[in-house]
Amino acid sequence: MKRSDNAIETEEGTLILDSHKLSHHYDRVLAWEAGEKIAPVSVDMALTRACPAMCSFCYAMVQEPQERAAIKPKQALELIDDFAEIGVRGVSLISDGESTLSKAYVPFIEHAANVGIDVGNATNGWEWDPEKIEQVLPHLTWVRFTVAAGTPSEYARIMFKGPEHTEVFDRAMRNIKYAVDLKRKNKLKVTLGIQMVLTPEFKDEIIPFSKLAVDLGVDYGVIKHCSDDEFGTLGIDYSQYEKMYPLLEEAEALTNGKTKIIVKWDKIKDKGKPSYKRFYGPQFLLQISGSGLVAPSGMFFNARYSKLHMGNFVDERFIDIFKSDRYSQIMDYLASPSFDAQTMMGTLPIQHYVTEALDNHLKGIQEISPNVGKKPLHVNFL
């Protein structure tokens, strides 16, 4: 496996999972520097808050209950229209719900493809049956399956009701294999991967997970940190990650010509402590809850952050939320000295790489320059 500056070279192109792609969206960087209101390059969202899984590491588990408004297909399609109008380039169905359960799931993906917006999908794969796979796989840029462990019993222990419920593991594996076979049969360009959210108590699953990725024949298996809120509700001891470095290096060595094993070293080595205080990332990478709530980051979906809630696209069009003074005021607040990302929010949000890069750019530590080379895979997902 060839690695350069957090980029993985594959047969299909360059894969960047442990960094950012801002240099490929330099027009937005320049507009942001000039103080203009910019549309996010990427939006991470869900089409529902419903999820049959019970993952012990899930950040959504620590959120106070929100009103779970149902997102109707018409509203989801209008959201795509609004994204297209303001210039959103990529949408990830990844947030705080299992989007494959939504009635809007298939039409949302198809409509996004029709208007030129890239779509990626993170899923546990339990309800991602062959009919849905055949409908959406040709339209997706990537699919990443949450696979908490490489052994059925531990998978069920972490993600469901207990180690005896291995039927969920079997169902997920069956659907993943179907997608892998369909991709090869139809020569689809979609990237398929599995992801392990690593918590210290399940370090013994690192190698079984990596071997499973190779056995499945997915394009990659990625191992990442676990986020927590600012109160440490999930109890993640980031100091324990360093003890796992040898195991993680052993896992990477399992890479072969077909499947890459990737460790998100940057976040793992940060130990839950970012270098930045101002939170610039949401202006480029916005998050929307499966309830329809629009907030700068999933870190703020919790009801106690209501002052950072911008609106709900179930109640009003997203484009009106985006154009509102409230949207601008909240983004400006997060980027001001009044906000401290080190103490006023949870650890290592999805906007971490983007925020770190923008912060370093402004401080003159590492300038973001326009990229004139070949675009990496998933370029519209920051």
Structure description:
This protein is an alpha/beta fold. Mean pLDDT is 93; it is low at 1-5. Strand 5, helix 3 (105-114) and strand 6 form a beta-alpha-beta unit. The longest helix has 20 residues, at 167-186. A ten-stranded mixed β-sheet has the order 10-9-8-7-6-5-4-11-12-13. Strands 1-2-3 form a three-stranded antiparallel β-sheet, with no helix packed on it. Helix 2 (73-86) packs parallel to helix 3 (105-114) and helix 5 (152-159) packs across helix 6. The chain is globular and about 50 Å long. It has helices at 26-33, 73-86, 105-114, 130-136, 152-159, 167-186, 206-216, 245-252, 265-270, 318-323, 325-334, 352-363; strands at residues 2-4, 7-9, 14-16, 42-45, 90-93, 118-123, 142-146, 191-197, 220-224, 260-263, 285-288, 293-295, 311-312. The chain is built from twelve helices and 13 strands.
